[in-house]
Amino acid sequence: MTRVILAEDDPAIAEPLARALGREGYDVVVHGTGQGAVDAAGEADLIVLDLGLPDIDGLDVARAIRGKGLTVPILILTARADEVDLVVGLDAGADDYVTKPFRLAELLARVRALLRRTHGEPVDEDEVQAQNIRVDVAAHRAFQDDRELHLTAKEFELLRVLVAAAGTVVSRETLMREVWGADPNGSTKTLDMHVSWLRRKLGDDANNPRYISTVRGMGFRFETPGG
Ligand code: CA
Q1: Which domain holds residue 84?
Q2: pLDDT tens digits for range 119-158
């Protein structure tokens, strides 16, 4: 059974959230303190971590969990949406975040996506799909409904990685590594250019994205209908 640790001290949030996660079939354990979450982290398949905990700041909780060498996915709950916190959150080893107040359906979609990414469904599948986009990795072809997309090699790789991880944030570092690898032409500016070209070919609008959202301070996310 998949165990989700919910570190949240506010019962008005923890109780309904724990019930909803339980209905999804997860074994949910609620901890009201950061120390409780750190101590229990080794048993978890995923941790939903509130930043505002009474004993230890949530970011220090995330750092302590990573400090133990654990790679368990961490989804941050935060009421502090400003960019600095997001950057710090990524440095602290979090995988994704949801800002309060959140929609339950969105949070559950993020949880599913993070678990999918870490359990099975490796990125080197033959075919990956999200919304009406299908990437046939084996044949090196990509489709929007039945229309074939004419992509460069880098755009194709970018789309493949984003679609395979659909519903979760893929960090800029991961995209650089997966798409450019040791290619000396890779730079963070190059990444932004390729994302921009890919959006144009998908007919996507960066200011009101249907497919690829920019997650400031973290990276990019390919949207899923549930997200
Ligand atoms: Ca709290």
Answers
A1: 3-118
A2: 654 445 688 899 999 999 888 899 999 999 999 989 999 9
Q: Mind listing the pLDDT tens digit for each residue in 53-75? A: 999 988 899 999 988 988 899 99
> What is the CA(133)–ligand 1 centre distance, in A?
38
Ligand 1: centre distance to CA 11 (Å): 9
Q: Could you tell me if 120 and 134 are in contact, meaning their C-beta atoms sit under 8 angstroms apart?
A: no
Please give the Cα distance from 181 to 175 (Å, whole number): 9
- Distance from residue 33's CA to the centre of ligand 1 (Å): 9
How far is it, in rounded angstroms, from Cα 7 to Cα 59?
Answer: 12
pLDDT tens for residues 6-49? 999 999 999 999 999 999 999 999 999 999 999 999 999 999 99
pLDDT of residue 86: 60
227: in domain: no
* Residue 36 falls inside a structural domain: yes
Cα(49) to centroid of ligand 1, in Å?
9
Residues 165, 108 share a domain: no
Helix ranges restricted to H, 24-103: 34-40, 58-67, 83-91
